[in-house]
Amino acid sequence: MLFKTKKSHYEHLRKKWTDRHKSLQQTLFEKHKEVGRQVALSGLGGLLLLTTPAANLLPEVQLLTQSQIDKEKDTNAALAEKLKSTLPSEIRPLTLEEEQTISELLSAQFGFIVTSQIQGIGLNRSYGLIGGEQHLYRYPGDNLYKHADNATDWAMYGSAGIAPGLGAWGYFATSEAQLSEKDKLREQYYLAVQTFLAPGFAENVAQYRDFFKYRKMLVINSKTGQSVVAAVADAGPAEWTGKHLGGSPEVMHYLGLAQGPRKGTVLYFLIDDPNDKIPLGPVKIPERLAKI
Q1: Rg of the chain (C-alpha set)
Q2: DSSP conformation class of 241
Q3: I want to staple 162 with a disulfide (CB 3.0 to 4.6 A). Which of 102, 130, 144, 194 is the partner?
Q4: What is the spatial distance between Cα 205 and Cα 59, in angstroms, rounded to a whole number?
Q5: How many CB atoms lie within 10 A of CB 99?
Q6: How many other C-beta atoms can be found within 10 angstroms of the C-beta atom of residue 273?
């Protein structure tokens, strides 16, 4: 009898608490409908990441078919195979002859001018080890969360974090309102290169500083042929790290180097694009040039 009484009392309290909880939920939802919708969408985004195939996350995005993916892999692999015969077995600076041969090959393959020097200015090397970098602050008040446009971006690039300091040329824009699409892409696909080791840098600091600011470069994973057009936005890494340049989280992803140690061997050449026609981001060899 005593057991039955306790159970009855418990059921009464549970029902009372459940009803009150539902009432509070409804009240909060009515008072804060917009917030409620945002929270619900946020929660839904998390559930989608856990339970939904990647192809369904962003239905508005035109995903590559398997045949297109295979074709691109084949093209990348073909480029890597062509480069294999011209690259040294060890990671070292290329000779002038090697740089010339490779720049001509890349120019023919991609359809734009790829070179180790422009106006007599170039880096100390064009073949070396790249390491993963963090995101950069784009404007005063920027933060890591604002770098992700959607749940997929956050899942892929959010864990890289954001650097405590600014890039070599400071903020990309003076305010969030002034942040252009070009500014966003420059941070998204940025490189840190050893400008301070470039021949002639110490004697011409101002000239080299202006020359390298947002300068476009072609970066290629020498083992897979995956390629990205990126902009120079920072200086580094330090010599003692053993690395020769750094890439943004997005650059590393499209080079196929975002997992594990987040580093790998790459070729990195300047792009001669005075009219700003070549877009930043992952790049593939045009079909008409793939067989050259």
Answers
A1: 26
A2: G
A3: 144
A4: 48
A5: 21
A6: 15
